[in-house]
Amino acid sequence: MQLSHRIETLTPGGADGWEVFVKSKALIAEGVAVTELTIGEHDIRTDPTILGAMDASARGGRTGYAEVPGIGVLRDKVAARITERTGVATGRDNVLITPGGQAGLFAAHCAVCDPGDAALFIDPYYVTYPGTLRAVGARPVSILTRAETGFLPSEAAILDAVTPDAKSLLINSPNNPTGAIYGRETLEEIGRACDEAGLWLISDEVYDTQVWDGTHLSPRALPGMAERTLVIGSMSKSHAMTGSRCGWIVGPDHAIARLISLATHTTYGVPGFVQEAALFALDQGSELEERIAAPFRRRRALAQRILAGQNTLRMLPPQGAMYVMLDVRATGLSGDAFADALLEAERIAVMPGESFGQAAAGHIRVAMTIEDEAFAEALERLCGFAAGLAAAKAS
Where does the Aminotransferase class I/classII large domain lie (predicted)? Predict the structure, then answer.
């Protein structure tokens, strides 16, 4: 039987960007020691106190259906958090709890795009973005950025990509994979472009607690943007709760009301015991968030020190998030070829830049997700491997 065109074309050509990750996992399953630096998975697990709250909630009976929009106290807590951090008055009716940020991205685009509409996004991008847009029936349209300008989008580039059927623009700051943070000037350009083109802005802010340089600013806080912006948040990165699948969408109350109806017909909410654990985690305040972010701040400094001691790889210093982007073109290899060769020769797994779009070609993304000493040793080996390739190319 024939499957739908939508599902058959979700990842054109069958490639989904995770090929090196899959190869590394297959090697690990065979008993091969691989240093895994692909996905954004914390090397520390969810704090035991959060797990204790989750256990107590489940044992206390919160294992049945939970309220589809999210339990009221959690929606209130997220709303208060957003109000405090953005200065934009936010209430329960502006919040929908979702099964993680990825589900939030899907739902948000369902809310603003009809089948066949153009949905814009910034390149480089998180690997799932184009497939998510195709999954809702939208037509993905990428907007290229350049390493030379810090991978920041411009108003002109956004407007150049706009077509009459364009309905939305998806941005991500702090950015995965580049680590770029969109400052006020960039966000104001984005806001003007959205206003001129009549676009909804969908802002993926799941790394908002991992800021190393500058300040995170939500575009929802800019004048006139709250009514056209849907913000995606998550407990995954801020609280090391990746497997718990608890996130949210924040937006205008009329949009959230319709999104609640969508959730009723799709996910039917998030387990109550997970939501109560998320509430407990948020109640711990910024101290817990800073403790979870601290290893990545240290490893960023380690990466800067190690990369400064070589001249083959070029690093765009990450302003935020848990990754380092390295330009490997001096080796003569593409990001795909370099990642494959590195895995084969050194048993170090990284993500090729090509997984994140055309703008990241010739780069690799290194996740800073293993213990400090092991991370430093792996990065030094990676630099040595690159230097060997560059020397061979020159000879």
Answer: 36-382
Q: What is the pLDDT of residue 317?
A: 85
Clarify whether residues 280 and 297 are in a common domain.
Answer: no
Which residue ranges of the chain lie beneath pLDDT 70? Answer: 14-16
Tally: H helices and E strands in the chain: 13, 12
Q: CA 319, CA 317: separation in Å to the nearest integer?
A: 6
Last residue of a domain, one of 226, 258, 285: 285
Number of residues in the chain: 395
Indicate the residue among 285, 308, 337 that finishes a domain: 285
pLDDT tens per residue across span 152-211: 999 999 999 999 999 999 999 999 999 999 999 999 999 999 999 999 999 999 999 999
Phi and psi, residue 229, nearest 5°: -120, 135
CA–CA dist 34, 31 (Å, integer): 9
Query: What's the rounded Cα separation, in Å, for the pair 262 and 270?
Result: 14
CB 205, CB 232: distance < 8 Å: yes
Tell me whether residue 5 is exposed, middle or buried, using C-beta atoms within 10 angstroms of its C-beta: 0 to 12, 13 to 18, 19 or more. Answer: exposed
What are the percentages of helix, strand and coil residues in the chain, rounded to 5?
50, 15, 35
Phi, psi torsion values for 236, nearest 5 degrees: -60, -55
Contact 78, 108 (CB under 8 A): no
The pLDDT value given to residue 14:
63
Given this model, what pLDDT does residue 15 score?
63
- Taking alpha carbons only, the member of 321, 287, 86 closest to residue 207 is 321
Q: Which CA distances in Å does 165 have to 46, 134, 221?
A: 43, 15, 27
The DSSP element (H or E) to which 351 belongs, if any, is strand 348-352
- Residues ≥6 apart with Cβ < 8 Å to 45: 240
Structure tokens at 351: 């993500």
- Structure pTM? 0.96
How many C-beta neighbours within 10 Å does residue 301 have? 12
- Structure tokens given for 230: 């849907």
Type of residue found at 317: P
Residues 228 and 240 in one domain: yes
CATH number at 111 reads 3.40.640.10
